[in-house]
From TrEMBL:
Positions spanned in the full protein: 661 to 949 of 953
Name of the protein this chain belongs to: EAL domain-containing protein
Subcellular localization: Cell membrane
Domain EAL per the UniProt entry, residue ranges: 24-278
Source organism: Paucibacter sediminis
Length: 289
């Protein structure tokens, strides 16, 4: 390979490494300004109440519509955005867009009870963050209680005291908090207990084990029991199969999210699917015509 290319700088690198470095640089350059160029998109994944079948909320998940690469998944660009200091800008865009979308759906006749937005550690360390959340709520007119912020165990445990203070401050806006991917990090129950949490999201790796591995099933039961003891609701992630949903229902899980109930989708598609959807909470049901 190097011989045929002649003597140039690239032959000093492993071909794979050079490609990786170059790709990263190109991605970073393109990602700067992606928000400004209007290349970010939000998709929304339904969260379903297991008792009633009603839409309990949605999770906002960002995508990057790159002119050449197509729709880039957050798993590919969020870690990069975090590393190069772009996550606050992207996170702000997500927050504003998510709050505005809730109000837009409502104007279209669909009331989505709650929207969940993922936070990165750099965001909660940003002194401006509290003001940004307040601004997103004020601009949209969305009630704080309908916004849920998702944090991971590693985010909390990096600087537990600071995270606790920040969440307490945000709590004054009325927002709620969920621990994402619960069970995969190394959090201390002593710290978790002190946080103003509302929900534990059971990681999809445990949901995948349902029906396959009794150890995984035992973890699901244990997380639900722990959540109950702490007075928290549970959301199971990555529910792809009906038998997983049934297991979770019997285990007392409150809410489910996963491909079985709907993939992350554009706002218009969520509206189409849930506007006048037959599945409603019994108390919400219209009298029979
Ligand atoms: P997450 O917050 O744990 O989101 C759940 C991920 O699981 C999403 O991947 C979703 O599409 C995927 N998923 C949902 N149901 C199923 C299922 O039934 N089976 C399988 N196999 N997967 C399912 P996605 O959208 O690619 O997002 C990946 C991660 O990127 C998110 O994990 C979150 O950590 C991060 N992320 C996404 N949007 C944002 C954002 O706006 N800000 C930040 N900071 N991170 C974000
Ligand atoms: Mg999440
Ligand atoms: Mg998750
Ligand atoms: Mg995750």
């Amino acid at each position: 390979e190097a011989k045929t290319k002649g003597r140039n700088a690239y032959q000093f690198f492993e071909p794979g490494l050079a490609a990786g470095v170059l790709e990263r640089l190109m991605m970073e350059t393109a990602l700067r300004g992606a928000a400004g160029r209007g290349e970010l998109r939000l998709h929304f994944q339904p969260q379903i109440d297991l008792r009633s079948g009603a839409l309990a909320g949605v999770e906002a998940l960002v995508r990057w519509q790159h002119p050449q690469l197509g729709l880039v998944s957050p798993a590919q660009f969020i870690p990069l955005a975090e590393e190069v200091g772009l996550i606050s800008e992207i996170g702000d865009w997500v927050l504003q867009q998510a709050c505005a979308q809730m109000v837009a759906w409502e104007a279209q006749g669909l009331r989505v009870p709650r929207i969940a937005v993922n936070l990165s550690v750099q965001q909660i360390e940003d002194p401006q963050h509290m003001a940004r959340v307040a601004q997103a709520l004020a601009h949209s007119g969305l009630a704080g209680a309908r916004l849920e912020l998702e944090v991971t165990e590693s985010l909390i445990m990096r600087q537990p005291e600071q995270a606790q203070r920040h969440l307490q401050e945000l709590l004054s806006l009325g927002v709620e908090f969920a621990i994402d991917d619960f069970g995969t990090g190394h959090s201390s129950l002593a710290y978790l207990r002190r946080l103003p949490l509302h929900r534990l999201k059971i990681d999809q790796s445990f949901v995948r084990d349902i029906g396959e591995d009794s150890g995984g099933e035992a973890i699901v039961h244990a997380v639900i029991a722990l959540a109950r003891a702490l007075g928290l609701h549970t959301v199971a992630e990555g529910v792809e199969q009906p038998h997983q949903a049934e297991f979770l229902r019997q285990a007392g899980c409150d809410t489910v999210q996963g491909y079985h109930f709907g993939r992350p989708m554009p706002a218009a598609q969520l509206l189409e699917r849930w506007l006048d959807a037959p599945a409603r909470a019994p108390s919400d049901a219209a009298p029979a015509a």
